[in-house]
Amino acid sequence: MTVDSHVTIVRPAHEALVEYLGCWALSSESQFESMAKGSTGQTELPRTELAELEICLPNSTRLSDFSEGTKPLFEAIQNSVQENQGLERLRDALLPRLMSGEIDVSEVDLKQLNGHLSES
Predict the structure, then answer these.
(1) Among 15, 33, 58, 106, whose Cα sits 20 to 30 Å from the Cα of 120?
(2) Does position 80 have pLDDT exceeding 90, yes or no?
(3) Other beta carbons less than 10 A from residue 24's beta carbon
(4) What is the 3-state secondary structure (H, E, C) of 13-56?
(5) What number of other Cβ atoms are within 10 A of residue 19's Cβ?
(6) Terminal-to-terminal C-alpha distance of the chain
(7) pLDDT digit string (tens) for 32-62?
(8) Which band of pLDDT confidence, cut at 50, 70 and 90, is reported for residue 73?
(9) 120: helix, coil or strand?
């Protein structure tokens, strides 16, 4: 674990620990928040308290099973985040042009455009 006054970086020693440590960090968020010291806008995590944290690791078989089961989920989440960011950029680029009338969509057939939504 690498710590400076404002950033904590957790790097696993082995690839198989990535998903497990990610889940551990997310589930420990309230613990990290309670450790924060300083003013509201400028809190820090004390190195000494971080160094005292203990992480219970499962045996290598369970860790491998956990990683194998969660890795596709994390990849799907990352893909969704990237897709969402792309859609946000597209919205931000198109919306002003649509609102100004620079792009005219009055002739677009929305039923045809959204036809795939009713097919199940």
Answers:
(1) 106
(2) yes
(3) 15
(4) CCHHHHHHHHHHHHHCHHHHHHHCECCCCCCECCHHHHHCCCCC
(5) 20
(6) 48
(7) 878 878 776 777 777 788 778 888 889 989 9
(8) very high
(9) coil
For the question of whether the overall pTM of this predicted structure is more than 0.85, the answer is no
Q: Which of 52-56, 67-71, 112-116 has the highest mean pLDDT?
A: 67-71
- Residue 55 near residue 24, CB atoms below 8 Å: yes
| 40 close to 95: Cβ distance less than 8 angstroms | no
Token pair recorded at residue 17 = 């620990």
What does the alpha-carbon distance between residue 6 and residue 1 come to, in Å, rounded to a whole number? 13
Mean of pLDDT values over 54-80: 92
Helix (H/G/I), strand (E/B), else coil: 87: helix
Three-state DSSP at 12 gives coil
Contacts of 110 (CB under 8 A, 6+ apart): none
Measured CA to CA in angstroms, residue 24 lies from 21, 52, 53, 56, 104 at distances of 5, 15, 11, 9, 50
Q: Which residues pair with 37 in a beta bridge?
A: 44
